[in-house]
Amino acid sequence: MQHNILITSAGKRVALVRYFKDTLVSFFLDGEVFTTDMNPEMAPAGYVSDGCFKVPRVTDEDYPELLFRICEENNIGMVVATIDTELLLLANLKDEFLRKGINVIVSDSIFVGICRDKRNTGSFFQSHGIRIPKEIDKYHPIFPMFAKPYDGSLSTNLHYIKCKEELTGEILNDPKLMFMEYIDKKVYKEYTVDMYFGKDNKVKCIVPRERIEIRAGEINKGRTAKNEILSFLKEKLGYIEGCVGCICLQLFFHPDTKDIVGIEINPRFGGGYPLTYMCGGNFIELMIREYFLNEDIDYFDTWKEGMLMLRFDDAIYV
Questions:
Q1: Contact (CB, 8 A) for 221 and 311
Q2: pLDDT value, residue 181
Q3: What is the maximum span of the chain, computed from C-alpha positions, in angstroms?
Q4: Residue 155 backbone class (left: φ over 0; alpha: ψ -120 to 50; beta: rest)
Q5: N- to C-terminal Cα distance for the chain?
Q6: β-strands 177-181, 103-104: how paired?
Q7: pLDDT tens digits for 109-153?
Q8: Which residues of 227-258 are buried (b: 16+ CB within 10 A; e: fewer)?
Q9: Would you say the pTM of this structure is higher than 0.90?
Q10: What pLDDT is stored for residue 160 in this prediction?
Q11: What's the CA gap between 103 and 43, in Å, rounded?
């Protein structure tokens, strides 16, 4: 049976690779976790994996064939994507890989498209009864307001605009920027929510974690919480057509009024997933049980509330 795992674009995701290795060997003693990267010698996660393969950019025409060959030659039964730019390509390759016994754990192309374009994400949230920041006409602005690109990631090209002097021509004429109501972080708390969806497109686990401190777009200090967000999302997003595996949802939560505002969805493992794993949300185990052992997964929320994560820098020495 093919029960090795390939994590693509591994880069600095050392903790994620280690968790995959620890979980996989608890089911298959000879199981191995491999990685890919454009520059394996400079990819820390490659050194903690069982082997790291050099690949071109995901946009290269040879990328799909090379990825498939790596899977065939290394007994890969599961491919896990980690960056936004490869999600749509891998979603379109799912059926082709599955015919060879390789499970690509990515949602279908329609749902990935909804998540990648934040204009579509807003419509998705609203169709499921989740409020989003109110849209603002940039030519008739209401201050303060917020602007972000519809296809952005890593918290880049974001603008908090407090007055008309700050609404520069560069910002005003950027065709990718969406203008919206500013959600005051002094009033609202920011949350990232890791959610796992089974083969049946039903949610199996929801772990909200407060984003106490952010660095380079990722959570640096965070704490798990069982509050109104849990039941709210289970009701609103208990089933999402075409959604499988781990997704990472960002929202704002008002602790007094309980107002919940949806911001975006990343249909992959998020940078703060280690906190979810350590508190008991082992989505890797769920993937192995579903895709390697063909087990049915039930919803659970027995993970630990109030677990605090304080991240710090570490290094790989070669």
A1: yes
A2: 87
A3: 63
A4: left
A5: 33
A6: unpaired
A7: 999 999 998 889 999 999 999 999 998 888 888 889 888 888 766
A8: eebbebbeeebeebeebbbbbbbbbbbeeeee
A9: yes
A10: 86
A11: 24
